[in-house]
Amino acid sequence: MKMRVAVLLAVFAVFCAADAQTCALDGLMSSLTKSVASAVLQKVTLSCIFVTARGSLVDCPAGYKPTSCSCGNACGSWDIRNDQTCHCQCANQDWTAARCCKIAVK
Questions:
Q1: pTM
Q2: Facing residues of 81 across strands?
Q3: Could you say which residues form the signal peptide (predicted)?
C-alpha cells in the first residue's frame, strides 16, 4: 500500500511538472500529502532521556541517538561521534551529558 501511494505521488508530480502554474492536481497533491503525513505522525512517538557520565565521553543507550550534548568546566565545544557518543572537546572534563532520543511506532 505504501509503495502504491508513493508511485501515485510520483506520477502526479511528473504530470504537474510539465506545467506547474496551471496544474489542477496541486490541491489534490497537497491534500493527499497532508493526509499521509498526518496518518504517519499519529503512529509515532518521540522518546527522550538524559544521560551523564564522568569524563569527556558519554554513550546513548542502544536504540537512542544523541540530539545534543553538554559539557562541564564551561566547555561549549562538543561533537557527536559514531552517531552514538557525545564528546566534549575541552581538556580535563569532569562530566559530559547527552540528550538521547528515539522514534517509536505505537
A1: 0.61
A2: 85
A3: 1-20
Question: How far is it, in rounded angstroms, from Cα 83 to Cα 17?
Answer: 37
Q: 42 with 54: CB under 8 angstroms?
A: no
DSSP line for the chain = -HHHHHHHHHHHHHHHHTTTTS-TTHHHHHHHHHHHHHHHHTTEEEEEEEEEEESSEEEPPTT-EEEEEEESTT---EEEETTTEEEE-SSS-SEEEEEEEEEEE-
Rounded Cα distance, 90 and 11, in Å: 52
**Contact between 12 and 5 (Cβ < 8 Å):** no
What's the burial of 69, exposed, middle or buried (CB within 10 Å: 0-12/13-18/19+)? buried
Residues 4-48 pLDDT 10s: 666 566 666 666 655 555 565 666 667 767 777 777 778 889 999
- Cα separation, 85 vs 97, in Å, equals 10
Pairing of strands 85-88, 78-81: antiparallel
Contact of 101 with 65, CB cutoff 8 Å: yes
